[in-house]
Amino acid sequence: MRRRAEELHKCNDGEEVEVWGWVRNRRRHGRLVFIDLRDSTGVVQVAVKGGIADDESLEKASSIRKESAIKIRGYVVHDPRAPGGVEVRCTKLEVIGESLDDYPLRKGVGAKVLYDNRHLYIRSPKITALLKIRSNLIGAVHEHFRSKGFYEVDCPTIITAAVEGGATLFEVNYFGSRAYLTQSVQFYQEAAIYSLEKVYSVQPSFRAEKSRTTRHLTEFWHVEAELAFADLETLINTVEDLVHNVVIRTEELSEKELKILGRKIRTEEVEKPFFRIKYEEALGILREHGLDAEWGIDIGADEERIISSEFDRPVFLTHFPREVKAFYHRLDPTDRRVTLSADLLAPRGNGEIVGGGVRIHDYDELIERIREFQLDPNDYKWYIDLRRFGSVPHVGFGMGIERILKWIIDLPHVRAACLFPRTTTRIYP
Ligand code: 4AD
Ligand code: MG
To answer: Which of ligand 1's atoms lies nearest the C-alpha of 183?
Structure first.
């Protein structure tokens, strides 16, 4: 019977098993060959010994290349000397798919080789652990939203007008007319709330962002949500709950993987409540650090790093000036210089992980803001149309999956959180 590597410690001594997987390493001592056999659940040591295994199996084991796929028949031996305390003594080795060449990835090769060979590198136990943590995190996102009465919606990826400014749009030739890859599904979610009230989605977003930082991808996975009949306070509480629950749940689900990576998720960093400061107060912090932070500056990567280093838990930055936030942000009726917006910065200098705010629900105000940004209302016809038929106050936000992972498991770069990252300098493999 086939057993997974992680199940073997539960087997009895002498129990006959089959294990299927890939040869991670092989060590030969005369008529004894040790194979570290890897499957999706872990690595198990297999001993192929003359006399126990048949000659053909021993011969195969002696020469088989790394990463060949094999099937082992044998029996379980609990042995404290084996990694994991259990070993499979092979009676028969069968090759499923032999490696045709020597495996190109060795200890000590640089980051470029690893990313050029990402299709192979993802087999390593560390990347496997990381991908499982990512899967756990996305599972936790779905669990959270569904438990809070949100409906999942799937929105288009090919669109006709910018959500987050024209400068970062990827153009697509759509049967001879111009289209783009979406930067955010926000506008479609704003339409969906009139049907479902509370919606969310997990989809890729695209940004032709030239910024070569450790936090920018050109394709990232975007968790977005939109809520009808809601204000800034509700938005902030919704984001706080999401980030808190998702980080706690990911930690619970990922015990084994975190051990493999040698990482710890600092759950104390998501204790509620998170901090809340207004843009204006953030300028004060920047000035204390010697920056010439004038009203109206955008809070870029460097500024975020300074601000978020001041806090040991996430901090909401609210009330950004109207000039620095996209046209759809509602102005504060008590101070029209600022928007009812909220970004969430992760602590320890990690910077923005969530961006969101209150949307304009008034028809005239929306048109005025579109014009203020020198955009063409004709490009936003259906979006404006929503304000003509039962418009209600509403809020929404977007959260980057890779940014969250970079923060909670201390990745050097968001690209490390992707199966196949896309950055300004990488579109292969
Ligand atoms: O702040 P952003 O640009 O907000 C929006 O797109 C809104 N329309 C979302 C909404 O309200 N529905 O992006 C939201 C989040 C950021 O906080 C960040 O976590 C992530 O998306 N993000 C990126 N992650 C990786 N690489 C990039 N280039 C990213 N751009 C944004
Ligand atoms: Mg933002």
So the answer is: 6
